[in-house]
Amino acid sequence: MERRKALRNMGLALGYTVATPTLLSIMQSCQNETVLEWTPDFFTPDQGSVLTKLVDIIIPKTDTPSASETQVHLFIDRFTDQVMEPQQQDFVKMSLGRFMEKALKDSNKEKAGELTAEELEPVLAAALKATPENQTKNFEAIQQYQEAISEGQEALLDDTISRFAFANNLRGLTIMGYKTSEFVGEEVLAYLPVPGEYIPCGDLQELTGGKAWSI
């Protein structure tokens, strides 16, 4: 039960925990890389194209950069490749595949790389649209599926739940990667590179103007 609570609270379908230095190391490697034509490490080129469009649907460009402009898609690809266990990677492949199948069917297209943001957005919105009760049921089904796979048993997961798992996990990773990026950490969040006076209790509005602290 504690693990299920952790999954719901984190908003991630895979249930992993990662130390902050690991996140910063991966994001730093992405920030230092000049990308003219991106070749994913884990995903296929078509999957990478879909991923790039999806992260920008989740965090579009406004008065701050979009997710892809801060290299979040590289972060997710590298995180999946370097941090996730093989079983988690298999789950990502499966759930992403179900997501793309739905998008291709709805758009009457054959290649995932041809999918546009306008075609992907309703699939993402539908996958994330779930009542709290249904979310709990979804996480329980995901938990049972993963436990069965871990025990070497044959397991099936409903297509709708698979798409929910992918979309929910992607949203969590996108937000995590965006908040870990150098630009957001220094320009959007409250940033204090050299710690100053320790204030155990203080009003966030007074201390940072209402901004959350950067990592």
What does this structure look like?
It contains ten helices and no strands. Helix 6 crosses helix 8. The longest helix is centred in the middle third of the chain and has 22 residues. With about 220 residues, the chain is mostly helical. It is globular, with a radius of gyration of 18 Å.
How are the elements arranged and paired?
Layout: H1 2-10, H2 20-31, H3 45-58, H4 72-82, H5 86-107, H6 117-128, H7 132-150, H8 159-180, H9 182-188, H10 204-208
Helix pairs in contact: 2-4, 3-6, 4-8, 5-6, 5-8, 6-8, 7-8
Main attributes?
single chain; 215 residues; mainly alpha
| CA(first)-CA(last) distance | 29 Å
Q: Would you identify the regions where 5 or more consecutive residues have pLDDT less than 50?
A: 1-15
Annotation field: number of helices:
10
Return the average pLDDT rounded to an integer. 79
Supply Rg.
Answer: 18 Å
Number of strands: 0
> What fraction of residues sit in β-strands?
under 5%
Overall, the morphology is globular
Give the class from helix and strand content and strand pairing.
mainly alpha
The largest pleated sheet is described as: none
Helix content: 55-70%
Order of helices and strands: HHHHHHHHHH
Brief write-up:
The chain is an all-alpha fold.
